[in-house]
Amino acid sequence: MSEKSSRRDFLRRSAAIAAGAFVIPEIIPSSVLGMGKGTAPSDRVVIGAIGTGSQGMSNMRDFLRLKDAVRFVAVCDVDSVRLNRAKEVVDKANNSQDCRTYSDFREFLEKEQLDAVSIALPDHWHGIIYTAAVNKKLNVYGEKPICRTINDGQIIVAAVKKNNIIWQTGSWQRSQPHFRRGAELAINGRVGKISKIVVGLPDGGRTIGTPPVKEVPPELNWEMWLGPAPKVPYRGVSHWDWRWILDYSGGQLTDWAGHHIDIANWGAGLEHTGPVEISGSGVYPPEGIYNAPVEYDFMCKYANGIEMRVASSSRLEHGMGTTWYGDLGWVHTDRGNVLTASKPEILQEMIGENEIHLYDSPNHWQNFVDCVKSGKQAIAPIEPAYRAISVALLGEIAMTTGETIKWDPEKEEIIGNPRAARLLSRPYRKPWTLPTV
Amino acid sequence: MASVISCKQQAENKALIITGQSGHDWKVSSEAVKQILDQTGLFSTKILVSPAQGEDMSGFNPKFSKYNLVVLDYEGDAWPEQTDKAFMDYLTNGGGIVVFNSKSDPGQAISESITSSKRYTFEIRTRNTDHPVTKGLPVRWMQPEDVIVQGLVPSGSEVLVLATAFSDTTHGGSGKPEPVMVAMNEGKGRIFATMIGLPGGEEDQALHSVGSIVTLQRGAEWAATGAVTQEVPSDFPTAAAPVLRPDFKAITTAEAFRMIADYDIQKSTRYYTFIQNQLSRAAGDEQKLLALEKEMVKVLKNEAATAEAKKLMLRELSWMGSANCIQAIKDLADVDGLKDEVAYALERLGQ
Fold first, then answer.
1. Is the pLDDT of residue A23 over 50?
2. Which residues of chain B have pLDDT under 70?
3. SS3 for B33?
4. Which residues of A touch B283 (CB under 8 A)?
5. Residue A314 — very low, low, confident or very high, per pLDDT cuts 50/70/90?
6. CA-based nearest residue to A392, from A270, A251, A186
7. Chain B closest CA to A94's CA: distance in Å?
8. Which residues of B276-294 are buried (b: 16+ CB within 10 A; e: fewer)?
9. In chain A, which residues touch B (CB < 8 A)?
């Protein structure tokens, strides 16, 4: 585990900032507000945010809810309205006017001296910006899916490993007790030897046809929003709805892979490997600008014999969520505190002292802050995030090519299919290139 | 290219549509059903119009055994006894029957417990994805401006409900899922019954919906032969929206490449979706992929083709292209508006 992010280094960096180019205003000690023992400003994680849309702001609020754990000092977005809104939230939390704003992440990363950065962007930007932030040795809270292509993911994983930073993926289901409990029952054999896993993710299914080309609103830097993606005219689709367009995302499948596929892998001991064979099919919208699959159904075979079916939930008996099946029964978990089993006794099972106890984090954002301070690995580190989205991206390749894909999870290569292998990456539009590690 | 363009197969199956009495406009529906079945290339279809309601039916005695498929687009007077018997013999000896929007057997009154929703656009749920008729269909898809018949009780234990629609009370519905498509075996014969595609309503959308057309085509093939060889087309609707075919006709590969040259995303993306679908259907079949590539290269070389069309071809060639497309791509390197896409394709192709 990282030694560079030790508590001592962390404090030293904070102290340097406090004494440095700008002045942190007085912060009212939390004890004055009757909140008990306060945290000294220098003990807070100094953090910035890149991407201040809905998920970025949601994460910011989750960090701010931790009270004295973090101090946001800078925000960055290509939409000035959202940027200013983020600044207002930060300034209010800090009781100051000092939150710095950036419209270009390069300038943000160049100028800011931070302990950590919270990043929530459309997937097509993840490769470049995650790698750039990690190469700056920043600890990162990064949204899932961590990459748009497997090649992007490989670079990000390599960068995190090389720079020894703390990485937390926004796969917050790991920090919910019932998901952890379900995964722990599965990995400790309470359903018997796991033979099958079924993962249900949402159906897609909205269309807007193809809206006419519109004038780019003055607050939005459209060219920067597109970045490495193909240049297209603005049709009013950017925030949120990028996820239905394959240039930026893979639809519900890739959006949710970092949740239920991640939990599936966690409970089956598959978080450091991948399938060896992937095949299936998707339903694509016949018309309109939204072109991500709205239904999908594919099977992944693992070297140890486990078969994982990933499908849109309308096709599945248990609908959304993860179900592990073994020779003794099944366990199913989903949002809304859902934890069910083929037999109620399974849910009463105790996990013995010498059995596998999965990482326990009661709060996903607190866990990141704690790990930044302690240097311990966070609950949702980079490789499991990469392995979870890889399943979805390999499924996407199987659906695009119509072929059964053979994958080497060790070498991380597609075997014997040069056409499919080309789909492991997406060339970047100039001048953008994926940073090297 | 011949291997890729879906050749019209010899129409091996003779189909007979029986119509002439119905609660809906049977002239419109029977003509549409004939076109829809003949369009598959699997059927050669005749329409038989019965005597009008109340007229003498005694001479109504179709030679069912001459056909592989009988479509009942008929709600009306009883048939002569020997016609009924011949029909049952036809079925039990292995004949295929499609029941098209008919709510009663000949000579029987429509049950009072059967009601209809108002016309509206609703979602259909495929309930059986293993049956040949519905295998490969989306689980959720939209049917436009149609009527849900409610209170139908599929009789017999062999009846498989293939699809249902939730009949919404705000549209005069039952507030329950209702079967809209069923299949059953009877003796050696097979029956497929569909309650979607009812003629009427704005521009006969229900009848022109790709969902009704394709399920009718697949149901007819299954009833006639016991298997379905037709592919699920790329324009099959999803939960997002219904899709219409004004002339009932499916897109062909030749048509898609002809139309793609004029590609304008604002008009339609369906020919592009079709080509992408053909690529995944080729699924590694080298000859099919090379044939498709040849057509794609023609679009690149076609001076009349739009830049947008060329961009789409470059995107697909970037992963499935062979050495055969490289020069044509390089030839576009200096064309304004295509530089990014040329660079994209060449980078992915390792050039």
1. no
2. 1-10, 154-157
3. helix
4. 401-403
5. very high
6. A251
7. 44
8. bbbbbebeeeeebbbbbbe
9. 203-207, 210, 212, 230-231, 281, 283-291, 294-295, 312, 314-315, 399-403, 417, 419-420, 422-423, 425-427, 429-430
Distance CA B57, CA B51 (A): 6
Q: In sequence order, which residues have a C-beta less than 8 Å from that of residue A195 and are 6 or more positions away?
A: A305, A306, A307, A325, A326, A327
B139/A312 Cβ within 8 A: yes
Residue A346: per-residue pLDDT: 98
| Token reading at B109 | 């009154």
Q: Taking a contact as any Cβ pair under 8 Å apart, which residues of chain B between 252 and 281 contact chain A?
A: 265-266, 268-270, 273, 276-277, 279-281
Cα separation, A330 vs A327, in Å, equals 8
Nearest CA in chain A to B264: A210
* pLDDT reading at A380 higher than 60: yes
Closest-CA residue of chain B to A311: B139
Q: Quick one: tokens of A180?
A: 């952890």
Interface pTM (ipTM) of the complex?
A: 0.93
Q: How many CB pairs under 8 A join A and B?
A: 118
Nearest CA distance, A340 vs chain B (angstrom): 24
Residue closest to B45 by CA, chosen among B59, B29, B60: B29
Using alpha carbons only, give the angle A32, A35, A38 rounded to the nearest 5 degrees. Answer: 75
Say yes or no: B164 contacts chain A, CB-CB below 8 A.
no
Quick count: other Cβ atoms within 10 Å of Cβ A65?
Answer: 12
B221 touches chain A (CB under 8 A): no
**Chain B 308-327, residues with CB within 8 Å of chain A CB atoms:** 311, 318-320
Residues A365, A370: Cα–Cα separation, whole Å:
9
Name residue A74's beta-bridge partners.
A48, A100
CA distance B283 to A66: 51
Angle between helical axes of A382-401 and B307-320 (0-180°, round to 10): 110
Report the Cα–Cα distance between both ends of chain B, in Å, rounded.
Answer: 27
The alpha carbon of residue A342 is apart from the nearest alpha carbon of chain B, in Å, by 24
| Angstrom distance (rounded) from CA A13 to CA B289 | 58
Where does the pLDDT of residue A16 fall: very low under 50, low under 70, confident under 90, or very high at 90 and above?
very low
User: Beta strands A139-142 and A116-119: pairing type?
Assistant: parallel
Please tell me the pTM assigned to this model.
0.92
From A361, A350, A320, select the one nearest A338 (Cα to Cα).
A320
Mutate to test the interface with A, among B280, B324, B336, B351 (most CBs of A within 10 A): B280
